[in-house]
Amino acid sequence: MWKIFKRLAFNTSYLFRPRWDTGVPAPEIIRYVNVKAPGNAIDIGCGTGTNLLYLAQQKWKVTGIDFAPLAIKAAHRKLEQYSTTLLVADVTKLYDLHLPGPYDLALDMGCFHSLTNIDREDYVKGLEKWVTQDGVYMVYAFQPSANNGRGISKEEMIAYFKNEFDLLNYEQGQGRPSAWYYFERKYRKPVPRRRRSRMETLRDQPILWLLPGSVPKNRQEQACLISVPL
Predict the structure, then answer these.
(1) Do 7 and 77 share a domain, yes or no?
(2) Residue 6 pLDDT class (50, 70, 90 cuts)
(3) Same-domain pairing of 122 and 31
(4) What pairs with residue 107 in β-bridges?
(5) Is the CA virtual torsion 6, 11, 12, 13 positive or negative?
(6) Which of 221, 203, 106, 214 is nearest to 164 (CA)?
(7) pLDDT band at 152, cuts 50/70/90?
(8) For the purposes of burial, counting CB atoms within 10 Å of the CB of 98, is it exposed (0-12), middle (13-18) or buried (19 or more)?
(9) How do beta strands 165-172 and 178-185 pair?
(10) What dihedral angle (degrees, nearest 10) is formed by the CA atoms of 68, 114, 119, 63?
């Protein structure tokens, strides 16, 4: 019940301009995009699409998801000139969504830290599905302090993503305890297929038994031919 009430209150905040909706793209994102070729990006918890708009202006293909319908409605207005994918969706159901991925860049400004431990695990599972190898995940999260236990520590962040992501960079935030994390999806070298031996190939082929003097009808029969002496 509390979770439903919280979501309703969050969605209602978009009837006005919530304090976190500055209308200005994050400097960290601008800095990253300035040195990267355009690709495919997703903003998880995109709000009204401020960062998506900047990415689209820089020729990126963009996807945004948020559980607040009013936020997505505003994002549609903001990005109406661009071809985008904008969905009202639960970030913990990321794995099951039908998205135009995979993604070279995934963003999260203040969504992951607000989830429960179980929801975080589902989120990570979805992220691992959609971020391409060598793709980057940029996430901004609050950190707990002596006066406020809300947030997530650096050690916890690394632990959640360690299976499939390496931490490339970490920047302490300004104001309240917080940080930017820059993760890169680990590269998994594909395992080369072992070449089959001649005997293994022959073993799996059908065998055609011909009596002496018989003639195979085609090359396939000739390849499978075993003559049987009388």
Answers:
(1) yes
(2) low
(3) yes
(4) 43, 138
(5) positive
(6) 106
(7) very high
(8) exposed
(9) antiparallel
(10) 50
Q: What is the pLDDT of residue 188?
A: 74
156, 140 Cβ separation under 8 angstroms? no
Round to whole Å and give the CA distance between 4 and 1.
5
CA angle in degrees (0–180, nearest 5) for 223-229-230: 140
Taking the model in full, what pTM does it have?
0.78
- Per-residue pLDDT tens for 68-87? 999 999 999 999 999 999 99
Please, which contacts does 86-91 make with residues 24 or more away whose CB atoms are closer than 8 Å?
Answer: 86/46, 86/49, 86/52, 87/63, 89/65, 91/44, 91/45, 91/65, 91/67, 91/115, 91/119, 91/123, 91/126
* 207 CB neighbour count, 10 Å cutoff: 9
pLDDT value at residue 32: 95
Does residue 61 form part of some domain?
A: yes
Average model confidence (pLDDT) across the chain: 85
175 and 215, same structural domain?
A: no
Count other Cβ atoms within 10 Å, centred on residue 168. Answer: 12
Average pLDDT over residues 117-126: 96
- The answer to whether residues 171 and 127 belong to one domain is yes
Assess whether 53 and 113 both reside in one domain. Answer: yes
Position 159 in a domain: yes
Tokens of 28: 């960290």
Residues 122 and 71 in one domain: yes
Q: Does 193 reside within a domain?
A: no
Average of per-residue pLDDT across 7-18: 64
Q: Are 108 and 213 members of one domain?
A: no
pLDDT of 219 above 70: no
Residues 28 and 137 in one domain: yes
> How many domains in the chain?
2
